[in-house]
Amino acid sequence: KVALLVGNSHYRHHPSLRAPGRDVCELRLLLEQLSFQVVSLLDLNKAEMLAAVSQFLQLLGKGVYAVFYYAGHGYEHLGRNYMVPVDAPQPYSPEHCISVQRVLQKMQQQQTALNLVLLDTCRKWYSPGGALSQVQPLQPWGNTVYGYATSEDAEAYELQDGQLSLGIFMQYLKQHILQEKKVTHMLEDVLEGKG
């Protein structure tokens, strides 16, 4: 059981976020209770994100349960999701961001037992035009599960509580992740906001 958690909060050219750091910390503690080996990283530029993913992929293989979690700025364009590194210029563009589908494709190639990808990010596209990253179509393997913080073409929100801030997605995820149930059922309960 291996997990890579990335939380980007302090951006150079985009508004700062308050929740990703705390969300990563919360999820790390929960996954460790489930016997995952967890690497959690904060405020990564593009080169650092690519290096972290590359090292994460080396830990994967047959029989491995893999979790990839990203909290921070992001967007979805024509069905493809992108994570925004802290050094990405304004406006967003694929060449300055990380393709989630490309990461997932490489995870699938490792023949893991389960790939769980959790995206705690906006899925709204603001810029007209813009090219897509070149990535082959994903294999329709049954060992891959996506969890989104929000629906397509929508923003993700943070909860403010004084000095503390938590993403709404994490607020519900932490209530269900330790329960013994199928991961798809757990994410359905998160989606429905069951407490």
TrEMBL record:
Protein known as: Mucosa-associated lymphoid tissue lymphoma translocation protein 1
Example GO BP: proteolysis
Entries under PANTHER family matching the protein: MUCOSA ASSOCIATED LYMPHOID TISSUE LYMPHOMA TRANSLOCATION PROTEIN 1/PARACASPASE, MUCOSA-ASSOCIATED LYMPHOID TISSUE LYMPHOMA TRANSLOCATION PROTEIN 1-LIKE
Gene Ontology terms for molecular function: cysteine-type endopeptidase activity
Pfam families associated with the record: Peptidase_C14 (PF00656)
Domain (Caspase family p20) ranges: 1-123
